[in-house]
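Appendix B, record 7
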Amino acid sequence: MTTKPRQSAPPLKFDLVGGGSWRLGDAKPENFQMIVVYRGLHCPVCKTYLGDLEAKLPEFSKRGVDVVAVSTDSREQAERAKSEWGLNNLSVGCELPIASAREWDLFISTAIRDGEPPEFSEPGLFLVKPDGSLFYASRTSAPWGRPPLDQMLRGIDIATERKMPARGEA
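Structure tokens (predicted):
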């Protein structure tokens, strides 16, 4: 069953590149926890998107948004992505279980060319409120079509200023 806005987000836990682990609910952001699921090291569109995210991290932080990116990639692949893509400040997770990706209703793909993992998650972006409820969800079945980050920043401004409830709950 799909989790709808205003409902509790599914559990989520994964290892972080550089050590430690991340678990939904451990961080207590002022406004939102933003979880960005990317396809993996094999994806050039992900490199561009996460590079833009890296550059905008201070803007998200100013808005009380903690950001983490994660993929189903192995630790080694995620370490390479973090290093080769210049993600110096972005928290990057690895080894997201396919079962967890499915629990978040993400699309799962199988490899169609060399360099792709046998199975991997397609992109998603989620905003979770400090109380653990889902506020916003975007899922795509291909590398394109992700929410523009400037639009996310404007949307977060509007939602917080107007104290808007999550939409899409019906």
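Remarks on this record: The chain is about 30% helix and 25% strand. The first strand starts at residue 13 and ends at 16.
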